[in-house]
Amino acid sequence: MTIDYRPPAGPDEVQAAFEVFLRSMIGLDLPVVDASTITENGRYIAAFEGDAVVGGVDSYSGWLAVPGGARIPHAAVTHVGVLPTHRRKGVVRNLITRQLHDIAARGEIVATLRASEAVIYERFGYGIASAGRSVVAHRRRIRLRDGVPAGGKVRLVDGSADTDLLRSIADQADWPGAIARPAGWWTLRRLATQADPTRHLVAVHSTGGVDDGYVVYRPENTQTWFTDREKTITVTDFIATNDTARAGLWRHLFSLDLVDRIVFEAVALDDPLQLAVTDERALELGPAHDETWLRLVDVERALAGRTYGRAEPVVLAVVDAQIDSNNAAFEVGPDAVRRSAATPDLTVDVATLATAYLGGTRWRQLAAAGRVDPGRAEVISRLDVLFGVDRLPFSGTAF
Ligand SMILES: CC(=O)SCCNC(=O)CCNC(=O)[C@H](O)C(C)(C)COP(=O)(O)OP(=O)(O)OC[C@H]1O[C@@H](n2cnc3c(N)ncnc32)[C@H](O)[C@@H]1OP(=O)(O)O
């Protein structure tokens, strides 16, 4: 089989590539869409056998917020799929290798994705950099503690009409792991909401007249809504840019009439809700699951993009099988990051470095797991001070 790799030429080929993605994903429930309205011009790369598309990878441009608050240029990788008839012949390897070089050539420092399976992407230098979990709140048992902020004002809005409003709030996200939500993401969200017969409710929070958070929720089992003893709503999107907004949105959800269960689809592992309630067993915490798979495309600029705790610098030798320019030693310290000719303190592969980059995994854990040399205990301690964060990374955006 001869496969050519190139960007799709025009909307018909983009559509064909997107259809390949949908076929490869089997159970992905998306509305019928014109793919050119949800993709970014020039970013799709497809695999062709003759005229037929047999695989593809895609991405969106944007930013990733990193420790210290900077937003660094970021590619959100998505729509990865190969037809079942063309699997395990190296098609995705060729596509992803080409895509990584394309992302690097665009000057984007990092790429992230959400993985359908956990065994695919490490070989391409991606590591798990943030995690989340679901939480079920039993409304009738929930009481917020006295010290929880009162919150500001909450108003209901028409979520499909007011995409611009929600977008302007989501654009304020600055926590480590937050990403820009591309135009195509918002278009797909609007189409999916419109195609869903169940009403999605949207409440916007504001403090002193400034919109600073919102929540989107929808009822489950609406066919049996009035006879259901466990009326459930699912929170599909929760954006709070500060603690007041978060508390105000909790108060809105926990004061809804009719509702028994509130399912948060995904929250950060250190989400403060647990600590804010008088009865922790009013919450069921779901298992942790991987969220952000991070690829450091330009290691030097990525390392320089975040801030560090105060410790003596460490020289890290990075090993990268795909991007040659990353194979170097970098001195990482609180005042500067620079390439170094000194003897490295530790060697780390680029995927493992990605797991530690946002602070979601400590170096001590990596050493205990044998992912880096556990013999360098003093270096590991220094790295944990340097990379330490006060908030676990979390994106909160599925794409
Ligand atoms: C960000 C996203 O879009 S996530 C969505 C990803 N897409 C899907 O899960 C859809 C269903 N799956 C598929 O379309 C394909 O199986 C893909 C895209 C996962 C892999 O495509 P392929 O062309 O078969 O992969 P390819 O042959 O290039 O394999 C490259 C390597 O990954 C391995 N690999 C690929 N897929 C898998 C998998 N699902 N499980 C385990 N190993 C895998 C291959 O064995 C090969 O290993 P090697 O490095 O030892 O040689």
Automatic annotation (TrEMBL):
The keyword Transferase applies. InterPro entries: Acetyltransf_17, Acetyltransferase_Eis, Acyl_CoA_acyltransferase, Eis_dom, GNAT_dom, NAcTrfase_Eis, SCP2_sterol-bd_dom_sf. Acetyl-CoA binds at residues 80-82, 88-93, 116-117. SUPFAM superfamilies: Acyl-CoA N-acyltransferases (Nat), SCP-like. NCBIfam families: PRK01346.1-4 (NF002367). Homohexamer; trimer of dimers. This is N-acetyltransferase domain-containing protein. It comes from Gordonia paraffinivorans NBRC 108238.
